[in-house]
Amino acid sequence: MFKTELCDKLGIEYPIIQGGMAWIATGELAAAVSNAGGLGVIGAGNAPGEVVQEEIRKAKELTDKPYGVNVMLLSPHVDDVVDVIYEEEVPVITTGAGNPGKYIERLKEVGTKVIPVVPSVALAKRMARFDVEAIIAEGTEAGGHIGELATMALIPQIADAVDLPVIAAGGIADGRGLAAALALGAVGVQIGTRFVCAEECTVHPNYKEAIINARDRDAIVTARSTGHPVRNLKNKLTRQIEKLEREGADKEKIEELGVDRLRVAAEEGDVEEGSVMAGQVAGMVNKEESAEEIIKSFIEEAEEVFKEKYQLINI
Prior knowledge:
Helix content is 43%, strand content 15%. The chain is built from 14 helices and 11 strands. The mean pLDDT is 93.
């Protein structure tokens, strides 16, 4: 039931991609997700090429399954990162914050599949003009930098607009979300927040605890006034940003306050002054589990949803 077109394209067992979260998605996490049947993804973020290469080689040591790297196209090191991906012949990349078009032809030479992340139909159509394998449509419920459209409205519109496999992201934390995404026209899902609390995720324990303790309204959006809204868990940092926005502070001042704050939370464990990026599903994540347990629960729960649906139809 859950072997979709995405599985065939990427050579994976289940249609589940792990989000490539900067400072969080390391080689250890990516390998664990890939070993469990999904596609693990290393988050390159703003890291230089040699750091990304170290994580890639770590993943290669830990798994012989397909894996990926998320490339942040606005990174000052993006050209070096792409060089590393080419050298290491990374099977899949996901991309954000830009157009990967200039890199696609070269990466195709080593068999790398390119999957851009988009928040709108217009951007999906633009990406579909290039030789990409699929589109990740990310709703505003996601953690980190977000668009405006909600996942339930976004997925069917993009599925109708492009002749490419669509992967749903944003607001998905269990098998019910997987089943819903498939019903909306997606061929798989990308999961971020729940995988932060995977046992194999090396993020600081305070970050995991913040997600586990989060309630339904704790993942809020700040910095809308800058044009680059971000979803984080409420803390001292978000209150400071909200205060600056109420006071009409300059965009530069607000953005300066956010510089390096994700690393502060993810590596140093300062979940008050740091940026704890997490999606609206943080309130659904209540324990730490292995990547294998997370994927197994997704599949079992989704199967149960469809089983109940078919029973109702047969009646």
